Amino acid sequence: xxxxxxxxxxxxxxxxxxxxxxxxxxxxxxxxxxxxxxxxxxxxxxxxxxxxxxxxxxxxxxxxxxxxxxxxxxxxxxxxxxxxxxxxxxxxxxxxxxxxxxxxxxxxxxxxxxxxxxxxxxxxxxxxxxxxxxxxxxxxxxxxxxxxxxxxxxxxxxxxxxxxxxxxxxxxxxxxxxxxxxxxxxxxxxxxxxxxxxxxxxxxxxxxxxxxxxxxxxxxxxxxxxxxxxxxxxxxxxxxxxxxxxxxxxxxxxxxxxxxxxxxxxxxxxxxxxxxxxxxxxxxxxxxxxxxxxxxxxxxxxxxxxxxxxxxxxxxxxxxxxxxxxxxxxxxxxxx
Amino acid sequence: xxxxxxxxxxxxxxxxxxxxxxxxxxxxxxxxxxxxxxxxxxxxxxxxxxxxxxxxxxxxxxxxxxxxxxxxxxxxxxxxxxxxxxxxxxxxxxxxxxxxxxxxxxxxxxxxxxxxxxxxxxxxxxxxxxxxxxxxxxxxxxxxxxxxxxxxxxxxxxxxxxxxxxxxxxxxxxxxxxxxxxxxxxxxxxxxxxxxxxxxxxxxxxxxxxxxxxxxxxxxxxxxxxxxxxxxxxxxxxxxxxxxxxxxxxxxxxxxxxxxxxxxxxxxxxxxxxxxxxxxxxxxxxxxxxxxxxxxxxxxxxx
Lengths: 336, 303
Known about the structure:
By secondary structure, chain A is mainly α. Chain A is built from 13 helices and no strands. Chain B is mostly helical. Chain B contains 11 helices and no strands. At the A-B interface, helix 1, helix 7, helix 8, helix 11 and helix 12 of A face helix 4, helix 5, helix 9, helix 10 and helix 11 of B.
């Protein structure tokens, strides 16, 4: 056992605190603004008929008491929390008979699949390039030309995605312009559909990798510079070790640990990291769902997605914290 | 004069800071000269010119061959589908976007620095609460929090100023954490003890003794906070929650996505905001690397 129970309990408490804060913010922020969605909706319906009928205020009040909005705030808060505990996020306004959960579960596999692969690819490519940039015996291509590619790390992924759409998809017609799969395809487990999905996810993946790899490269480069000054590197070189062995087994291996910590942290954001890229690409994940809900003023959907993402992050962070001591033998959470 | 030479020599060594400041000067010149040329109340808004015209240096509004009866106006960046002059959008939008970023960044740094200083200095329950609040808030994705705030505000309340205030709600987290940890290590140093023995009050020590030593960190934190704020404002606007009437860069990108400008072949419409946004982010990135080197001499120069 690498960690004590008090540590596990503390991390578990932090996880619950994050989920609770997410739910509470979701409840109180909309209440603090002067907006009244119920009145707005009724006003919208009423103005469609051309005039506001007498007794409009009574109607608003009747609906408010029906939805329990005339009760004191703390009573509303308690019943809201009970709903959240049961995992009841309510119905979508714009796709009415569907619940918020159903729609989120439709988008979740797309988002997680895209982000899991791109995060890992960006990590591997970025770390390798970063290591080569700092390695004195690497060719000049790596030492001087690659660092300029780091610039991509500073630009938001969806801006890169927009540029890629224009050149790769619209101008050169190499890849499909957007969406998760072709218009004529039916979802199913056959080779045609799966290759179609892969082809469609290449462009968003490229944007995410380009934007993500830069950060990993910077971290790796810094670590490798420090490691080159270590005694065991000089010793290995003096012993006449082959260059690649010195690079992979001595330098990269030791520089990788802090990178892996970062990877664990990055994996927590697997549900929320690509909202805008999905929107730009029309990729059928959570991000597109969120953007559509914002445009249609589908409040339950917006708050539901935000709550699910925050919960997802809190839980993955907890799991990563529990796994981490197994990766780095120097870290132990035992009570001293 | 001597100082100027010294700083110039330092800039030659610190290339990323030099390039970053170069881009900054370019952007400032671009905006200042732009404001002398455009009419900021007309040009960046719809119907300022003909819709969807490509960039050209000599444009004739009417299609007659002589084009002398009308005043020829050049649209060097072209216009978008609603007839905004994209040069006007570039000039006014850059300034508005930077304005949002500066406002949110400065408010965020102020609040964050205050929380960081006081919590590290006084400790106890207060510190515990601040630390947990920062931990929780850093876990919650800022963009989503802003989405909840902005979507429940309503469109007409979101202006350029309103946007800055909304984004300030998340931009205090980073500075609070960084400054807290710096102050924690500084609190035990002898000159702080000395000040305490001399009977200086808590606030006096914080502002008169510690603050000057933290200035480089505060500068680096400000650049970080402004970057994060511009990032958030662009993301929020791209989702359709920006000040939709104003020609900020984020809102322009929203229209580019919403009206599928690229698929209609109107490449200049997207190229203008994307180019400037890329320039702004690269500038902030280079300046922050450069400032890191100033604030933290230990990471100076890998070679």
